[in-house]
UniProtKB/TrEMBL annotation:
<keyword id="KW-0560">Oxidoreductase</keyword>
<feature type="signal peptide">
    <location>
        <begin position="1"/>
        <end position="24"/>
    </location>
</feature>
<dbReference type="GO" id="GO:0001735">
    <property type="term" value="F:prenylcysteine oxidase activity"/>
</dbReference>
<dbReference type="Pfam" id="PF07156">
    <property type="entry name" value="Prenylcys_lyase"/>
</dbReference>
<dbReference type="GO" id="GO:0030328">
    <property type="term" value="P:prenylcysteine catabolic process"/>
</dbReference>
<keyword id="KW-0732">Signal</keyword>
<keyword id="KW-0285">Flavoprotein</keyword>
<comment type="similarity">
    <text>Belongs to the prenylcysteine oxidase family.</text>
</comment>
<dbReference type="GO" id="GO:0016829">
    <property type="term" value="F:lyase activity"/>
</dbReference>
<keyword id="KW-0325">Glycoprotein</keyword>
<feature type="domain" description="Prenylcysteine lyase">
    <location>
        <begin position="148"/>
        <end position="263"/>
    </location>
</feature>
<dbReference type="GO" id="GO:0030327">
    <property type="term" value="P:prenylated protein catabolic process"/>
</dbReference>
<protein>
    <submittedName>
        <fullName>FARNESYLCYSTEINE LYASE</fullName>
    </submittedName>
</protein>
<dbReference type="InterPro" id="IPR010795">
    <property type="entry name" value="Prenylcys_lyase"/>
</dbReference>
<keyword id="KW-0456">Lyase</keyword>
<dbReference type="InterPro" id="IPR036188">
    <property type="entry name" value="FAD/NAD-bd_sf"/>
</dbReference>
<keyword id="KW-0274">FAD</keyword>
Length: 265
C-alpha cells in the first residue's frame, strides 16, 4: 500500500545538503577534515546516506556516526512473522525516482518484486472507524475482460466521488517530485547550499514548509475537501502516523510515496 520512501527522500535532502557542506568544508571554520556527520537511524535512508557520503567524499574523510536503537541495521526493511505468515514491516515500496536508494538496493543485491496484475487491481476500501466510506468493486476474476470492466466502473465511481481532484493531486505530486529531482544535478550546474532554507528555496520547495499539507491542498491545489478527509488523511496516517495537518513539505513527500499506486486502481 502507501509507503515511505518519503522518509528516504527527506534523508536524501539531508544527504544532498550534507555532501556539499562536506565538499566545501575546507572553506568554513566549523568544517575541516575532522568534521563529524551524525545520522539517526540505520534504515535504508540512514545507511544509504552513510554509504554514499563516504563514496562521494573521496578527498575528505568525515567521521560518520550512525545512531541506531536496534541491534541490527535495516530499520523497517524487514519482514516480521506473525502466526506463521511473513509480512513486510515497512519500506515495501521505493519510489522509482529515488535513484540513490534504488542504487543502494542494487549494491546489496536486493531484487525488486513487481506486483502481479491481480495484486495491483486489488479493490480499495477506506474504513472511518464505523464503516466503509469508500468501497470499490473487487476485480479478482481470471478473465481479463471482467477485470477491465470492473476497473472501468471503479474509475467512474471514484470520479463521481472526487471529481478532478485525483488528477489534480497527481499533478501536485509530479510537480513536487520534479522539484526534488533537481537535487540530482551535479555541483557543476547547481549551487552549493549553505543552509536548508537556501536549498529548499532553490528547488521551489520552501513555501511548503510554511503551511500544513491541508492548507496547501485546499488553497493551492484546490482539492475537494472529501478527498483530503478520506484519502490524504489515510496516506499521511499510514506513512507518518499524522493527520493532514502535517507540514506541507513532509506531507508532499508522503503523497509522493503513495504515488501512482492509487491511480492504478
Ligand atoms: C545510479 O546508478 C546508475 C547506474 O550505475 C548511475 O548511472 C546513476 O548515476 C546512479 N545514480 C545516483 C544518483 O547515484
Ligand atoms: C552482490 O553480488 C556481487 C556479484 O555476485 C558480489 O560481488 C557482492 O559481494 C554482492 N554484494 C553483497 C552485499 O552481498
Ligand atoms: C513563495 O512565497 C512567496 C511569498 O508569498 C512568493 O513570492 C513566491 O513566489 C513563492 N514561491 C513559489 C515557488 O511558489
Ligand atoms: C488540524 O488543525 C485544525 C486547525 O488548527 C484543528 O482544528 C484540527 O483539530 C487539527 N486536526 C488534527 C487531526 O489534528
Amino acid at each position: 500500500m502507501f509507503m515511505l520512501p518519503l522518509k528516504i527522500l527527506i534523508l536524501l535532502l539531508f544527504f544532498c545538503l550534507t555532501f556539499p557542506q562536506i565538499s566545501s568544508s575546507t572553506s568554513t571554520s566549523s568544517g575541516g577534515d575532522d568534521a563529524t556527520v551524525c545520522i539517526i537511524g540505520s534504515g535504508i535512508g540512514g545507511s544509504s546516506v552513510a554509504h554514499f557520503l563516504r563514496q562521494y567524499s573521496t578527498n575528505h574523510h568525515p567521521k560518520i556516526l550512525i545512531f541506531e536503537r536496534h541491534a541490527i541495521v535495516g530499520g523497517r526493511m524487514a519482514t516480521v512473522t506473525i502466526g506463521g505468515d511473513a509480512f513486510e514491516a515497512g519500506a515495501s515500496i521505493l519510489h522509482p525516482k529515488n535513484y540513490h536508494a534504488s542504487n543502494y538496493t542494487d549494491l546489496l543485491n536486493l531484487t525488486g518484486k513487481i506486483p502481479s496484475s491481480s495484486e495491483s487491481s486489488i479493490s480499495l476500501g477506506i474504513w472511518d472507524g464505523n464503516g466503509f466510506v469508500v468501497k470499490t468493486l473487487n476485480a479478482n476474476s481470471n478473465w481479463g475482460i471482467v477485470n477491465k470492466i470492473v476497473s472501468f466502473f471503479n474509475g467512474i465511481y471514484l470520479f463521481i466521488r472526487y471529481g478532478f481532484s485525483l488528477v489534480k493531486m497527481e499533478g501536485f505530486v509530479d510537480e513536487t517530485v520534479n522539484k526534488f529531482l533537481k537535487y540530482y544535478e551535479g555541483v557543476e550546474t547547481r549551487p552549493v547550499f549553505e543552509s536548508v532554507e537556501e536549498m529548499l528555496k532553490w528547488a521551489g520547495l520552501f513555501n511548503l514548509t510554511g503551511k500544513s499539507l491541508k492548507e496547501e491542498l485546499v488553497d493551492g491545489v484546490k482539492l475537494a475537501p472529501l478527498l483530503i478527509k478520506e484519502l490524504v488523511t489515510v496516506i499521511t496516517r499510514i506513512n507518518y502516523g499524522q493527520s493532514a495537518n502535517i507540514s506541507g513539505l513532509a506531507g508532499a513527500v508522503s503523497l509522493a510515496g503513495s504515488g501512482g499506486g492509487f491511480m492504478g486502481c
